[in-house]
Inverse folding.
DNA sequence: CTGTTAGCGCGTTCAA
DNA sequence: TTGAACGCGCTAACAG
């Protein structure tokens, strides 16, 4: 075969395999003359070291994994973009795994990764994930691990998150100030801390404005169809809310669709606000008031921290829990 | 160390490594009794075979690569979703590489992949890619390869594409029938076949309706800012078009933004049509008439074909060039 | 500065 | 049915 490996190069150059290896790894204990000879031939033959051999030998894969619920979601694709930027710079490869909001799939993915395939991984858990033992056991197995956005506050796993409670408070207050008296909160999962933080910001704002009794929390499920039914019911009911806070982008899209269907005017009859990283949010009818998370930065931060762990640098205390600010972009969907 | 490998299992069970290996690989030349003993302990200790060792030994990685220009684009994230579905089913891992529309980056990515890291790869080239030698040399190196959407018709590399010329013809004709007499075409790159096919469909429709002289092709560059400038110039010029055909989603978003900025009314003053896989296209102001490509299916098809090649099945002639139909969804942005 | 040797963990001979 | 031995391609320790 014409497989080009160290042995082949060594043979053609009448050198020992180890010499060739050293020459290619910039070792300074090799004469510049042979180094050039080796490099020239390597280049000519298009030599690429076999990654499995060197991974096996060095016990590192130059690969990280990104485990996310879904990719058709601007938040996660922006995160991935940030991760990839850092990884490419570091000469690392990126494996992508989608859990599709399925806890069991998530568990088995982590299980498979506990074997050296990756040097580290970053994860945002599915909304059906209730416990974090699978993360803990990865960490105990010694795999560098970083979590982001959908995280667990009760572990020592480094986290990159946003100011969910504060921005949700601000968003809810914004609705109140624009005249809403009955605001619904669409929760994505009662298991996720970010969902609960967002809810708590919402509740706190209601209480501050003496509307604690008017709370209206709709717990959504992982089932899209069912959620849409719930929303339809909500908007068709007698006590229809005059404002709705969507804790994830998908819900905002759903609400828009249902309002179109039911002829409910946004913002006149219903004011809408939602977490969203849609670049087209400003172009919707009407433009959507959005809480924009710094997704790309989250990706960059998370992977930077991950690489620090991989490189065995000790993390500063402040690096174990990083909170990045989201932005509230006010647009027509929430204004009088 | 507590690393759990075949050696460890063998030791604890007083068996040879090879026996353990056989037991775990369902070999029938091992007593069912020992097989169970082995499996039990393996499960108990959470044994996961070292992928680098077995990849090295078997000369296959159980990994494929997806090389795409960008991920913050619904078309590509839907494709990735389709790929991941098939890969997960096959027990394969997916590496993701972003070229950011940079030919050189694309070349060096393929270069690095020419070494056994992946069992195959699928690619949609960047819009700055003019020649396809880097693909050819991958194929010559024996790496299973499939291209999709942004492909090269002059090679034998299997392709999954859509009916670009036909659907573009239809879209342009739709604009004509809705009264447009001066239709601009925003081309993403004069190097890409899909861009040229889309353009040809546009031109053909103009000619059919005796508007061949009114062609107005704007060649865009990989530079977003510059493209926006070009579009602004186009819409501010004396001979402002009354219709615009955006060959990619991003351009449609840009056009909407610029129209908002310049107070140009869609569709009254300008009718807009564009390739787009945005789920929110129907919610834009006004709802966007879109050419929707079957992105998820492209991902599934492309990876299915890739796995056929990997498994050394011979491809039917009809599998070497698969054309999937796009859909034209007519909405307000293009109607009187 | 270069060569020899050993071994990473696994799968696959060949022997018993 | 099991065990011993080898080698995938590479890096690193040790020798010269």
């Amino acid at each position: 075969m014409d497989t080009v490996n160290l042995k082949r190069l060594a043979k053609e150059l009448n050198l020992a395999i180890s010499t060739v290896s050293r020459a290619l790894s910039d070792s300074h204990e090799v004469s510049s003359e042979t180094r050039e000879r080796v490099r020239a031939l390597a280049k000519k033959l298009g030599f690429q070291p076999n990654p499995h051999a060197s991974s096996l030998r060095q016990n590192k894969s130059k690969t990280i994994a990104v485990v996310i619920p879904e990719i058709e979601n601007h938040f996660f694709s922006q995160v991935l973009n940030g991760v990839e930027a850092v990884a490419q710079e570091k000469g690392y490869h990126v494996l992508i795994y989608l859990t599709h909001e399925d806890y069991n799939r998530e568990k088995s993915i982590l299980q498979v990764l506990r074997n050296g395939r990756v040097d580290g991984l970053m994860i945002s858990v599915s909304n059906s994930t209730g416990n974090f033992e699978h993360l803990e056991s990865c960490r105990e197995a010694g795999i560098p691990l970083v979590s982001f956005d959908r995280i667990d506050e009760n572990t020592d796993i480094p986290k990159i998150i946003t100011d969910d409670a504060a921005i949700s408070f601000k968003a809810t207050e914004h609705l109140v100030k624009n005249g809403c008296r009955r605001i619904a909160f669409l929760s994505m999962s009662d298991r996720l801390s970010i969902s609960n933080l967002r809810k708590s910001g919402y509740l706190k704002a209601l209480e501050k404005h003496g509307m604690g009794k008017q709370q209206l929390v709709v717990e959504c499920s992982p089932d899209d169809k069912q959620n849409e039914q719930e929303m339809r019911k909500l908007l068709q009911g007698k006590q229809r809310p005059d404002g709705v806070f969507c804790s994830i982008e998908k819900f905002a899209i759903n609400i828009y669709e249902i309002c179109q269907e039911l002829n409910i005017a946004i913002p006149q009859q219903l004011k809408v606000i939602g977490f969203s990283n849609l670049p087209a949010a400003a172009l919707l009818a009407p433009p959507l008031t959005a809480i924009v998370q710094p997704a790309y930065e989250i990706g960059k931060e998370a992977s930077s921290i991950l690489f620090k762990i991989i490189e065995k640098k000790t993390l500063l205390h402040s690096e174990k829990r990083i909170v990045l600010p989201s932005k509230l972009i006010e647009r027509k969907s929430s204004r009088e």
Notes: The longest strand of chain A covers residues 63-68. Chain A has a mean pLDDT of 94.
